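Appendix C: a fully annotated inverse folding record. The material below is reproduced so that readers can follow the format used throughout the book. The structure is listed first as tokens, followed by the designed sequence.
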């Protein structure tokens, strides 16, 4: 009897070991269904493909897919937690037991205005990071907007209701992008209801171009319409960065660029890439430009970097620029994302270095129009010892923009992250302060006109600030 019991125990033990080995093999695979920690995403991976879905309590919508080879090198698995690297950030996922029923089949009318509004509202309720900072009464705002919507609400009306809601939320990265037709109809309504402005209007690239042309005694710019560089008088280096985006070499079709414009053509090609490919293309592009710039300006007395008219783009581009002035890897900030009623674990952000960085003084010109990724550049610059900031504080739009899509295909975004410096202080809304204040006007066009219509005064105010900082 004893031997039979022992034999049976051995059989059961063998079965358990086989099952454990099978489970271990399964759990060591990245294949399966994964739910993000924060960010409202499902990631489904099989042997050949990956698929991202945006999820709320009432929706699951496909957002991006591709071949697993595009992302495999950016994914690591540890203790049943999936980490996906994108730029300097890691996004974490836990294994889900099953693919959500909402993702399998959508039975809702994707054009129903109330359904689209509820998806928008549910996303904000779950992920917006600044209800408390901006003193938002969510229930009141939500109910007030919902009362305006019914089955007969037009697309233009829905767009205007959502846009008004975003404005009330005071979200620096809040946006809603309907179809071109809806946007144009809404803009026509706004024009009809607005007074005609009598003063001259300047675009950010326009005023930036005027400044670069006036500042540069020796213009060394080549093969770039996003960055101007060269030398001012007295061997002073000058770099003007107009945007933190559009640097990737995407082999764009010339005829499409001519027909649709560069930015539209670029974005179409960009959106066909995986998230990881998007980041790598941008980094490679800006790094190529910066290597040329730093070779041209390596013998200068000091360098001025002008980002006063830069509305942002990709954080990785901003950090790639700063890397050329950094001698060793340093922590520059931390971030956390809204998750349920709290936040994800705080994660550090680092700035890498290059082999032979420019270690002479650097002066970063900022204004209240320096936003988003340019905010990130200014925040990171606080940890670079030879760099000082001049002008006025940045815009304060520091959180990443969480990109989402409504059931009807409209794109929208919101601020879901809190960035802090190494002293745990955050600058959302208030912006990154300067070391020398030039009291630029807060209003965009007033500031642009003050610069464009007296370029000599603008240049001398910057040079005087630098002389005072250098005790000259």
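Designed amino acids, in order:
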């Amino acid at each position: 009897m004893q031997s039979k019991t022992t034999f049976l125990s051995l059989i059961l033990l063998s079965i358990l070991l086989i099952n454990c080995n099978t489970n271990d093999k399964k759990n060591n695979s990245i294949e399966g269904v994964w739910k993000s920690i924060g960010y409202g995403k499902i990631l489904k991976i099989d042997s050949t493909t990956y698929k991202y879905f945006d999820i709320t309590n009432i929706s699951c919508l496909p957002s991006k897919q591709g071949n697993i080879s595009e992302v495999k090198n950016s994914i690591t698995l540890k203790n049943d937690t999936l980490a996906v690297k994108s730029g300097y950030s890691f996004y974490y996922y836990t294994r889900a037991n099953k693919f959500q029923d909402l993702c399998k089949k959508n039975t809702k009318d994707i054009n129903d205005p109330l359904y689209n509004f509820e998806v928008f509202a549910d996303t904000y309720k779950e992920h917006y990071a600044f209800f408390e900072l901006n003193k938002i009464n969510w229930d009141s705002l939500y109910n007030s907007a919902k009362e305006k919507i019914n089955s007969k609400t037009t697309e233009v009306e829905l767009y205007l209701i959502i846009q008004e809601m975003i404005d009330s939320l005071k979200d620096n990265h809040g946006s809603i992008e309907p179809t071109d037709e809806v946007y144009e109809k809404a803009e026509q309504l706004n024009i009809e209801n607005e007074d005609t402005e009598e003063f001259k209007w300047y675009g950010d690239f326009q005023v930036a171009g005027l400044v670069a042309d006036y500042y540069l005694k020796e213009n060394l710019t080549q093969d770039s319409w996003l960055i101007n560089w060269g030398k001012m008088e007295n061997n002073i280096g000058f770099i003007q960065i107009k945007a933190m985006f559009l640097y990737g070499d995407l082999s764009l079709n010339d005829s499409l660029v001519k027909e649709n414009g560069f930015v539209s053509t670029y974005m179409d090609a960009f959106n066909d890439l995986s998230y990881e490919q998007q980041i790598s293309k941008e980094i490679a592009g800006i790094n190529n430009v910066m290597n040329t710039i730093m070779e041209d300006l390596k013998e200068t007395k000091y360098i001025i970097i002008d980002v006063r008219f830069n509305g942002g783009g990709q954080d990785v581009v901003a950090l790639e620029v700063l890397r050329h002035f950094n001698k060793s890897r340093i922590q520059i900030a931390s971030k956390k994302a809204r998750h349920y009623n709290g936040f994800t674990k705080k994660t550090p952000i680092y700035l890498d270095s290059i082999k032979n960085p420019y270690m002479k003084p650097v002066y970063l010109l900022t204004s209240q129009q320096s936003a988003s990724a340019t905010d990130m550049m200014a925040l990171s610059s606080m940890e670079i010892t030879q760099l000082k900031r001049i002008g006025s504080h940045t815009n304060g739009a520091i959180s990443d923009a969480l990109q989402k899509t409504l059931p009807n295909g409209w794109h929208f975004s919101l601020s879901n992250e809190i960035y802090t410096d190494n002293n745990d202080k955050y600058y959302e809304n208030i912006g990154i302060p300067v070391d020398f204040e030039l009291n630029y006007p807060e209003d965009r066009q007033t500031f642009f006109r003050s610069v464009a219509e007296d370029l000599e005064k603008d240049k001398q105010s910057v040079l005087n600030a630098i002389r005072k900082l250098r005790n000259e």
